[in-house]
Amino acid sequence: MKTAFSLLMVLVMAIAATSAYATSPDPEKQASALVAQAKERYQAGDFEPAAQLYMQAYGEVQRPAPVFNAARAYEQAGLWSEAKPLFELYLQIDRGNDADSVAGRADAQQHLEAVNAKIAAEAAKKNAPPPAQVVLPTPPPAAVVPPAVKPSPVIQDPPAVEPPAQVADLNATTPQEREWTGLKTAAVVTMSAGAALIITSVVVAIVAHSDLADLDARLATDQVANNQGLILHGSVTQQEMDSGIARYNTRQVTAGVLGGVGAAAVVVGGILWWQDGARAAHNVALSTGVVPQQGGAVWTLAGHF
Q1: 76 and 187 part of one domain
Q2: What local confidence, expressed as pLDDT, does residue 224 receive?
Q3: Residues 186 and 296 in one domain
Q4: What is the model's pLDDT at position 219?
Q5: Residue 230 lies in a domain
Q6: Phi-psi region for residue 212, left (φ > 0), alpha (ψ -120 to 50) or beta?
Q7: Can you give the pLDDT at residue 1?
Q8: pTM (two decimals)
Q9: Using only C-alpha atoms, what is the Rg of the chain?
Q10: What CATH number did the domain enclosing 86 receive?
Q11: Of 82, 101, 124, at which residue does a domain stop?
Q12: Which of 1, 5, 199, 208 sits 20 to 30 Å CA-CA off 274?
């Protein structure tokens, strides 16, 4: 019985071992799958998870390549302390003499030196003493200088002023300061009208002489002698000559009247202007007037001095 039981147990254990060996995963396939996942995470920028997957692949199959890739992933992530031992491990396990192994060890050595420099720089930065704070001295308060007091000016008595010998009357009105009066206005209007009449009389006289000169010129160029020795005019009739002479006489009279009235108006305006100034200066006054008479009127000029 004991022998049969022992054989049965050996058979069961053999079957169990065979079953377990048949169901265990292949390390090569597992390592290849982990490397593929690590490459995807590395290309996506997830460097730390990629480094962990590379080391899991190295745990399945101990090859140097996953160790180097894991060290590079940690270096890309800025984890210098994690990358350093992996570069050192790669240099220990990669002992091949082929060209790829030799180039890989040289590349790993350069990365290891760069990682050591980074670690040394961080350590120096951590151990560096904090920068000393420079405390600027407080300047002393400025002295308060009181404002300068200006001395009061000495007030002296003003010098005595002699009064003028003659004091002008401030209320006196000079001729330049007097207002324009109505008498001045009348004087200006009268003299202006007189000047206009004189100019008109001159124009009328010039026109009269011009017409008479034209008539004389026609008579001088239009003379015809008859058989009795008389001078006749062919185109100028007696009526035209009489009319021209009458028109000349009328214009001459008109010019004389206008000139006389204009001259009188200028004289009257001058008297009015003189009267205004004389009244203000010497209390001299003149007055004009018209006295009606039977069948006419008499113009009068009166005054007192």
Answers
A1: no
A2: 61
A3: yes
A4: 67
A5: yes
A6: alpha
A7: 45
A8: 0.38
A9: 73
A10: 1.25.40.10
A11: 124
A12: 199
pLDDT at 233: 55
Residues of the chain with pLDDT under 70: 1-24, 131-132, 134-137, 143-178, 219-220, 222-236, 278-305
Could you tell me which of 186, 213, 179, 169 has the C-alpha nearest to residue 271?
186
Specify whether the CB–CB gap between 80 and 61 falls below 8 A: no
Sorted by sequence, the CB contacts under 8 Å of residue 160 that are 6+ apart come out as: none
- The span from the CA of 111 to the CA of 84, in Å, is 9
Indicate the number of domains in the chain.
2
Q: Residue 63 domain-assigned?
A: yes
N-term to C-term CA, the chain:
193
Q: Which domain holds residue 79?
A: 25-124
DSSP E strands: which ranges in 119-229? 224-225
Query: What tens digit of pLDDT does each residue of 33-63 get?
Result: 999 999 999 999 999 999 999 999 999 998 9
The DSSP code sequence of 19-42 is: HHHHHSPPHHHHHHHHHHHHHHHH
* Residue 52 lies inside a defined structural domain of this protein: yes
Identify the domain boundary among 88, 109, 124.
124
HSE-CB at 63 with a 13 A cutoff on CA atoms is 13
189 with 265, same domain: the answer is: yes
Q: What is the pLDDT of residue 86?
A: 94
In a domain, 205, yes or no: yes
| Dihedral class, residue 115 (left if φ above 0, else alpha if ψ from -120 to 50, else beta) | alpha
Q: Which two tokens stand for residue 160?
A: 């005595």
